[in-house]
Amino acid sequence: MASEHSRTDASLVHDSAADPGAFSELYARHVDAVYRWFRRRIDWAASDLTAETFARAWLVRGRFRDERSGSALPWLLGIAANVLADTVRRDRVETRARERLGLPLDLARDDGYSEVEERLSPRLALERSLGSLPEHEREAVELRVIDELPYAQVAKRLAIRPAAARLRVSRALRRLALSTPKEDL
Amino acid sequence: MNSALPASLLDYREALEDAVRRDLGRRRRRGLALRWAVAAAVVAAAALGALSLVARHGANVSVVDRAAAAVAASPGTILHVDMLGSQTNGDGSVITWRDESWQQEGPPYARRQVETTPGGSVTESGSSNTADEVYDPARNTIYVNAHSAEQPYAKDKWDLKPGPRPGTALLRVGDVEYDRILSTAVISAAQAKALRTGKDAIAFRISKEHPKPSVTVITAPKVPKAPPETPSADPTSSGFRGEILALLRSGDARVVGHETTDGRDTIAIASADGHTTYYVDPGSYRPVELRTRGTDGGTALRFRTYETLPLDANRGLLSLAAQHPDARVDRDPAAYQAAEQRLFPKG
After folding, report:
1. Which of A23, A32, A54 comes nearest B2 by C-beta?
2. Which residues in chain B touch residue A23, judged by CB atoms under 8 angstroms apart?
């Protein structure tokens, strides 16, 4: 077997079909980046959502396509974006992949996060982080990301052109470091 | 890994590797299609994983998390539970009952159950999102009460792909996130657009000839925006399992030690107020007994069987018709009501 350092992420994903240690190595390589990605967005749930992202990555590993010279990080961040979107839509921390795999479900508690008010609502926590945006950008992001409206409807609500709505949301997301690999966002 | 990571994520690496190993083992065993072997091996694998986790963490919180995961719904499976219930009343009297059920762990949540009442009578019934059924052994007849023919499908359980021809789209319904597709249909671009905007909705239909659901597009109900999930639509979230999960996720559940229950070793997990104690198998963390007590008596649910079965190989367990192939089927709603009153006189 090749040493861990000589294997690309793509090889690790491929080899994990027979070698659980390969997926563990993939986790070790990228858990920092995924955790930091979540911390910038919803700090108190970052551990849980990072754990959920890797559990989901395992379940959907068959969809991984090596399009970035062997790196799996863009793929993992794409899954992270979906986990975050599902968490906001369902207004509770995503646990479905971990439940399926019998993994721990409440890491935030282990990490000492106990602020009940914040933990009640991931949606509320994310909305609070939007408070730093100018009013017109915040409204656009809320309509697109939280209400999940298509750009045409966002534009209609804001009385602007769809292209302008897309630009406004994009600018706001960059400002929040809320960029996401999802093409349809 | 960076040492700045929280301890939970440092520990999670081993838990994840264990889970991956178990999942790979489950997939291999599924390939053998031996139902008894799968059930036994899942328990063994879960036991190995659980024991290694306890050895690493040694903390009660892991036991509680494991116990919660052990009763969480697992899509694509059937949960088989054989449960004895007893209720102790304030006057010292005790009533007992038995409930054996097979519950599909995902839409359309088909269920069959055999209930033995405190009086000793046995009734067999079934249900799903589309119909309720009851079996009358005296008349060897299955009475069916169909729900509305079409029901809107949950929004996050479908997606759209490019269709086979220009101007068409492929509608896929099921657990699309994990590629568990229940049914597909080719629809027009206009229908696809109406679905996306919420003007139209998905419905599924089960015909007598084809028990597999087929999907169709209907005008959306007059509700502006359906909630993403309706908890009550999932029967697996209610009942004893809901009670167990409420205890385990309350943040107040604590492990009080090992106890012998029904002649076997168990781990006892208690609520903060001491009114509820939940006993789990120390290997699989699956339920053994749930006891609740109030000011005037208490209730105990003892799980004689708690197992997860592969759906495809065991669909017949969900069906009254499969269990009673020579029974007559009566779809008259009035006959169903009469049978219900006859077989469940106390409701």
Report:
1. A32
2. 16-17, 20
pLDDT in tens, A14-47: 889 888 899 999 999 999 999 998 888 788 889 9
Kindly state whether B262 is in contact with chain A, defined as any CB-CB distance less than 8 angstroms.
no
Interface check for B93 against chain A (CB to CB < 8 A): the answer is no
- For the ranges B17-26, B61-70, B315-324, the one whose mean pLDDT is highest: B315-324
Q: Residue B154 carries which DSSP code?
A: P
pLDDT, mean over chain A = 78
Residue B326, CA distances (Å) to A55, A153, B27, B137 in order: 46, 56, 36, 11
Which secondary structure element, helix H or strand E, spans residue B297, and what is its range? strand B297-310
Q: Is the Cβ–Cβ distance between B187 and B169 less than 8 Å?
A: yes
* Band of residue A180 on the pLDDT scale cut at 50, 70, 90: very low
Q: Is the distance from CB of B198 to CB of B223 less than 8 angstroms? A: no
Helix and strand numbers, DSSP H then E, in chain A: 11, 0
> Which residue in chain A has the smallest CA separation from B65?
A104
Beta strands at B158-162 and B151-152: parallel, antiparallel or unpaired: unpaired
Q: From chain A, pick out residues whose CB is under 8 angstroms from the CB of B197.
A: 150
Of B5, B75, B228, the CB nearest to A89: B228
Contacts of B23 (CB under 8 A, 6+ apart): A58, A101
Contacting residues of A for B196, CB less than 8 Å apart? 150
Q: Closest to A107 (Cβ–Cβ): which among B9, B46, B178? A: B9
The string of pLDDT tens digits covering residues B56-93 is 333 344 688 888 888 887 878 899 999 888 877 666 77
Q: Given CB atoms, is B68 within the 8 Å cutoff of chain A?
A: yes
pLDDT over 90 for what percent of chain B? 14
Dig out the tokens for A184 from the structure. 């349809």
When comparing pLDDT for B6 and B1, which is higher? B6
Distance CA A54, CA A31 (A): 8
CB pairs under 8 A between A and B: 111
